[in-house]
Amino acid sequence: MSGQTTVADRVLQFNEQLAETALELPPGFTVLNPFSGPQKEHVREVTTAFYQRFYDDNEPRRLVLGSSPARRGTAVTGVPFADAELLASEAGADIDGYAISRNSSGFIDDVIGRYGGRDRFYGDIVMSFVCPLGLVRTNAKGSEVNANYYENKMLLESLSSFIVDTIRRQLEFGTDTSVCYCIGSGENFRFLSKVNKTEQFFEKIVPLEHPRFITQYNPERREEFVEKYVRVLNGRSD
Hints:
By secondary structure, the protein is an alpha/beta fold. It has ten helices and seven strands. It has helices at 7-19, 40-54, 74-77, 84-91, 103-115, 118-124, 153-170, 187-199, 211-217, 222-233; strands spanning 29-32, 61-66, 125-129, 134-138, 144-146, 175-183, 205-208. The strands form two sheets. A four-stranded parallel β-sheet has the order 3-2-6-7, with helices on both faces. Strands 1-4-5 form a three-stranded antiparallel β-sheet. Helix 5 crosses helix 9 (211-217) and helix 5 (103-115) crosses helix 10. The longest helix is centred in the C-terminal third of the chain and has 18 residues, at 153-170.
């Protein structure tokens, strides 16, 4: 593929652009940017290993968009919805201190396995976020907790242009825009649908329940939702 950029090249370049991003947020909110943080060199090694392993081609892929990276998940690893332990086993990428199973990444891993394995899944799909940088807020006890871009009106207003711009840039991966899958069937889906109505990024957006909603509140239905994810991602309606 000499002289031609790959999907991996374009995703990694997108991450480098995120490393240079400066956002002004309302008081009490902070950005977590793994691409410019203290572990940025390690994150660069991890993301390079992952994307060159699974995206070293120019095949079109569909986007699956969550809301934003979790502070002890993607906001650390730089790879959306992939647990550090899985990164170590699948891409030879080790992130010390975070090799523990997470509910969301564990659920997605079940979906990947049922879909046909990592090579098939990542050959069809790029996982990412509506807001591709992590967000935290300080709670009443003074602790940092995950924040969603849509949970505060001022926060959303400060992030809106960044979100629209980064979705547009993610289409440059070589994205199949016939459909986008939205993880989070509530506020994330409503906001993404509103943006898409104006920008017309995708022909349609299909909502999927968030893994946390499934694993925390509906664990007895986990198998049902795994099957739903696989069915939807294979292009079959309910």
